[in-house]
Amino acid sequence: MNTYKSFETERLILRPTSHEDAPFIFELLNTPQWLKYIGDRNVTSIKAAEEYIRSRMQPQFERLGYGNYTITRKSDGTKLGTCGLYDREGLNGVDIGYALLPQFAKQGYAFEAASKVLEAASDNFKLDQICAITSKENTASQKLLEKLGLKYIQLVRLPKDDEELLLYELPPQDRHNG
């Protein structure tokens, strides 16, 4: 298996999600916030989480070299959430996304992780078009996207999805320079 880059911030380590994260991914994908704002991925067991990682997360790493990162707190090794760059059908550009377990929300972890992922998008992966999508009801995510420098563009629908989502983009002048 290839070794993909991990990243560090002051408080966090972001490393590519792997099969050993299956119990954590199972827990995260079944939180009320994930189900409400991101959607039910039908990950109903740790075995299903292993399959989700294998079939949905790892192929993008193999294809593009980046994807979903598990966020771990340096001080105690606790897994807090995920943050990553996603090549989504129906979007121009690469989507930045994040999710934390509820007990770790509102502590600056998502901003810290997403800021590092945005920096990596430019510096490590040379991506020039970054976007994000979020549900109309997810005001916390909207505020975080704006704090990260992304600007609301329009409502969009992804293929095979009925929900209208808010599309944000990172303006070219706000992107990091490598």
TrEMBL record:
**Gene3D superfamilies in the cross-refs:** 3.40.630.30
Concerning PROSITE patterns, the annotation shows: GNAT
Query: What SUPFAM superfamilies would the database entry show?
Result: Acyl-CoA N-acyltransferases (Nat)
Q: Which InterPro entries match?
A: Acyl_CoA_acyltransferase (IPR016181), GNAT_dom (IPR000182), N-acetyltransferase (IPR051531)
Query: Where is the N-acetyltransferase domain positioned along the sequence?
Result: 12-171
- This chain belongs to which protein, by name? GNAT family N-acetyltransferase
